[in-house]
Design a protein that fits this description.
Blueprint (H helix, E strand, L loop, with lengths): L2 H11 L2 H13 L4 E2 H8 L3 H13 L3 E6 L2 E6 L1 H12 L2 H4 L18
Antiparallel strand pairs: 1-3, 2-3
Helix pairs in contact: 2-4, 3-4
Length: 112
């Protein structure tokens, strides 16, 4: 993951409603949830939730799929893993096994 992508993803997560939505979707798994269901579960107005979900999608953290009149959002786990790997890239003297994070190290790591 490039530094600019990480900044975009972190900026998208740096808001209470978006972080709550992302965490909810992480817990739901790869099938995700329709935007209306997300808004309902988080007690957020649907139009405001749509704005937040679009922000997370643009940041690459969510994937959206249209189902008739509804849009279903799900976490892009590859992007999430890429963000975590970026954050932990230089962890533990560049030995992620020390922190138990060896699975997060991307095969083609880039330095800052």
């Amino acid at each position: 993951m490039k530094q600019s992508e990480a900044i975009s993803a972190l900026a998208a997560l740096a808001q209470e409603d978006r972080l709550a939505a992302f965490r909810l979707l992480v817990s739901e798994g790869p099938h995700g949830l329709p935007s209306g269901t997300i808004a309902e579960k988080l007690d957020i107005q649907p139009t405001r939730m749509s704005f937040h979900l679009t922000t997370l999608e643009r940041a690459g953290l969510l994937a959206a799929h249209r189902e008739g009149r509804h849009i279903r959002y799900a976490v892009d786990y590859a992007q999430m893993k890429g963000l975590l790997a970026f954050l932990m890239e230089d962890c533990c003297a560049n030995n992620p096994a020390i922190c138990g994070l060896e699975d997060l190290k991307p095969p083609h790591s880039t330095s800052l």
